[in-house]
Design brief:
By secondary structure, this protein is an alpha/beta fold. The protein has 2 domains: 175 residues, Phosphoglycerate kinase, N-terminal domain (Rossmann fold, 3-Layer(aba) Sandwich), CATH 3.40.50.1260; 205 residues, Phosphoglycerate kinase, N-terminal domain (Rossmann fold, 3-Layer(aba) Sandwich). Helices cover 36% and strands 15% of the residues. It has 15 helices and 17 strands. The strands form 4 sheets. Strands 5-6-4-1-7-8 form a 6-stranded parallel beta sheet. A 6-stranded parallel beta sheet has the order 11-10-9-15-16-17, with helices on both faces. Strands 13-12-14 form a 3-stranded antiparallel beta sheet. Helix 3 links the parallel strand 5 and strand 6. Helix 9 packs across helix 10. It is elongated. The termini are close together.
Length: 404
């Protein structure tokens, strides 16, 4: 279903509560990566250009309904101030003042909103300091909603959660999708609704249990599925091959067998690694060896895809016209076990001119960033979990409330 978007919004002189995703990494009390703040700028700037009174709300980390001093949004305000200032200066427009409120509901916040000048941008405190946020408590949603006339959803990474700021408020105010949400949905729909073929899906990471619905939805649609990471170990065991001391979801082996059968029924080529990098320890490895599947020893741990697999997967990607990637090929946070993941990142960058490439998932995005390849991918999703659930065919509650 189509979404109501900010393009249809008339916000002049109105207070707009925008749910953004400022869940950014902090280091020593400062923002270590401002990617998600930058992603919200087009929507914020569009609202300012409409002369709306802009109110921003976000979560940060997992405070579990309690105030955690290290998870306050204070470090974000000056970064947002600088980024907005740069954008407005380039456009020849008047600068704005970002005002950080120390709460997100209550009398102090109401006073903050009332005192703000027309060009001020208000930033509320961490929503998840209140248990009512994640519980989608109607009273908490009502307190947020009464501060604004309109609602804009621009935090795609949270639309798979039925929280007060993603669903509750949207049910109380006229609600619209921001540019980021609109862009995310369009890019992901291009993967599942009308992909250019061949369509290649790359799935990695640790757990097959979190990606069963993705496999079930995409196996009949995809031409090729490339499997890596610890997910591959569960498939290996399902085929009766040794896995040594590698991480395996034993309760998912039968499911992996079912996925292999589904791929065959769907005439989808499901690729498992041809070789592996194994080691004896994740914390203090004595070395790393490239072995074939039948050479995995009892004490071995699979930590990456091998060189033959890297080449085979690259060959498939080269011929693809649409590619969706989620999850690393190994323990990529350890440099010597990162080569498979980095090879996939490079292969996607190399087909920029011939294939529509979409990447979702924190670790996959981290690999792209480490390889300085973020600009070589057509769409890098800001929501790993949300992008997975979208391509799995689930209804995302934070999108359902925005349907036209």
């Amino acid at each position: 279903m189509p979404l109501r978007t900010i393009r249809e919004l008339s916000a002049t002189g109105k207070r707009v509560l925008a749910r953004v995703d400022f869940n950014v990494p902090l280091q020593n009390g400062t923002v270590a990566d401002d990617t998600r703040i930058r992603a919200a700028l087009p929507t914020i700037l569009a609202l300012l250009q409409q002369e709306a009174h802009v109110i921003l709300c976000s979560h940060l980390g997992r405070p579990k309904g309690q105030v955690v001093e290290s998870l306050r949004l204070d470090p974000i305000a000056p970064v947002l101030q600088e980024l907005l200032g740069d954008q407005l200066q380039q456009a020849g427009e008047q600068r704005v003042l970002v005002i950080k409120c120390d709460e997100c509901i209550g009398p102090a916040v109401e006073s903050c909103v009332q005192r703000a000048a027309s060009r001020d941008v208000i930033l509320f405190e961490n929503l998840r300091f209140h248990p009512g946020e994640e519980q989608n408590d109607p009273a908490f949603a009502q307190q947020l909603a009464k501060l604004a006339d309109l609602y804009v959803s621009d935090a795609f990474g949270t639309v798979h959660r039925a929280h007060a700021s993603t669903v509750g408020v949207a049910q109380l105010l006229p609600a619209y999708a921001g540019f980021l949400v609109e862009q995310e949905v369009a890019a992901l729909r291009q993967v599942i609704d009308a992909p250019q073929r061949p369509l290649t899906i790359i799935l990695g990471g640790a757990k097959i249990s979190g990606k069963i619905e993705v496999l079930e939805n995409l196996l009949p649609l995809a031409d090729n599925v490339l499997v890596g990471g610890a997910i591959a170990n569960t498939f290996i065991k399902a085929k009766g091959l040794p896995v040594g001391k590698s991480y395996v979801e034993d309760d998912m082996v039968e499911t992996a067998s079912r996925m292999l059968a589904l791929a065959k029924e769907s005439s989808t080529e499901l690729f498992l690694p041809l070789d592996y990098i194994v080691t004896d320890s994740l914390t203090e490895p004595s070395g790393a060896t490239n072995v074939n599947p039948d050479q995995i020893g009892l004490e071995d741990m699979v930590v990456d895809i091998g060189k033959k697999t890297q080449k085979a997967y690259r060959d498939v990607i080269e011929h693809a016209r649409t590619v969706f990637w989620n999850g690393p090929m190994g323990v990529f946070e350890t440099e010597q076990f990162s080569h498979g993941t980095m090879a996939i990142a490079k292969a996607l960058a190399d087909v920029y001119n011939t294939a529509h490439t979409v990447v979702g998932g924190g670790e996959s995005v981290s690999a792209l960033r480490a390889a300085n390849l973020m600009d070589s991918i057509h769409h890098v999703s800001t929501g790993g979990g949300a992008s997975l659930e979208f391509v799995a065919g689930r209804e995302l509650p934070g999108l359902a409330v925005l349907q036209a």
